[in-house]
């Protein structure tokens, strides 16, 4: 079946610290992988995506590489800011339209 | 990118009443719309998938008669929570997909049933 496992939060970091949020998946076939971000009181916004093995998605300083051999799509950022405080969701989408989301990881960045 | 709106963003209702939530694709035609439910500090759970002009497909465990979904046009889908109870209080999010299969998420509707 299809599922996503994310590292549990909450994660608290100081400004300019390095961020890693782990995500591993189980999927049938060759899914696309996504990271979505949810700011307080808002809906989900696409942060980045990768559609095939070894692709690297990047946006706003965040990066994630589609690793088929380890079935992982870890999110990284070299220097976080207070404005990055949000909940981050890893998701996969097999062929078709349905998404499978992880449970989300809450990130708080303190000045 | 494409824009999906939801209305209302917040609703408080009394137990036993029905609440309708609208999801609109503002600048594209959405052949498929999805409704998700999110409990506090949990992930999104897909409730149902609706295609324009046809009946929605509900996920296992979702009551069809309680969560009525209508997708009458290519830009509008509605979710009606009938006879709402406090346990229906949640954050409801829709997403819409057009011809390229990319999904765009709405900002969500927070429902509180008293």
Structure explained in plain terms:
The complex is a heterodimer of chains A (111) and B (114). Chain A is mainly β. In chain A, 0% of the residues lie in helices and 50% in strands. Chain A contains no helices and twelve strands. Chain A has strands at 3-6, 11-14, 19-21, 23-26, 32-38, 44-50, 56-59, 62-65, 75-77, 86-93, 100-101, 105-110. In chain A, strands 2, 5, 6, 10, 11 and 12 form a six-stranded mixed sheet that branches. In chain A, strands 3-9-8-7 form a four-stranded antiparallel sheet, with no helix packed on it. Chain A starts with a strand and ends with a strand. The model of chain A has no long low-confidence stretch (mean pLDDT 93). Chain B is mainly beta. Chain B contains no helices and eleven strands. Chain B has strands at 4-7, 10-13, 19-25, 32-38, 44-51, 57-58, 67-73, 76-81, 90-97, 103-105, 109-113. In chain B, the strands form two sheets. In chain B, strands 2, 4, 5, 6, 9, 10 and 11 form a seven-stranded mixed sheet that branches. In chain B, strands 1-3-8-7 form a four-stranded antiparallel sheet, with no helix packed on it. In chain B, strand 4 and strand 5 (44-51) form a beta hairpin. Chain B is globular and about 40 Å long. The termini of chain B are far apart.
């Amino acid at each position: 079946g299809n599922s996503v496992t994310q590292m549990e939060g909450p994660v608290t970091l100081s400004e300019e610290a390095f961020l890693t949020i782990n995500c591993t998946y189980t999927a049938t076939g060759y899914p696309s992988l996504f990271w979505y971000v949810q700011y307080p009181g808002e809906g989900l916004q696409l942060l980045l995506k990768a559609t095939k093995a070894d692709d690297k998605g990047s946006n706003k300083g965040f990066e994630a590489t589609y690793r088929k051999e380890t079935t992982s799509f870890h999110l990284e950022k070299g220097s976080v800011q207070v404005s990055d405080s949000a909940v981050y969701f890893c998701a996969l989408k097999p062929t078709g339209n349905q998404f499978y989301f992880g449970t989300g990881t809450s990130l708080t960045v303190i000045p | 990118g494409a824009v999906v709106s939801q209305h209302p963003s917040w609703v408080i209702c009394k137990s036993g009443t029905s609440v309708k939530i609208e999801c609109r694709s503002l600048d594209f035609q959405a052949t498929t719309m999805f409704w998700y439910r999110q409990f506090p500090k949990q992930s999104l759970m897909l409730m149902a998938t609706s295609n324009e002009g046809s009946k929605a497909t509900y996920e296992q465990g979702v009551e069809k008669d309680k969560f009525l979904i209508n997708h009458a046009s290519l830009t509008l889908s509605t979710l009606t929570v009938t006879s709402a109870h406090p346990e229906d209080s949640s954050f409801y999010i829709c997403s819409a997909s057009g011809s390229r299969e990319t999904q765009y998420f709405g900002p969500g509707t927070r429902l509180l049933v008293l």
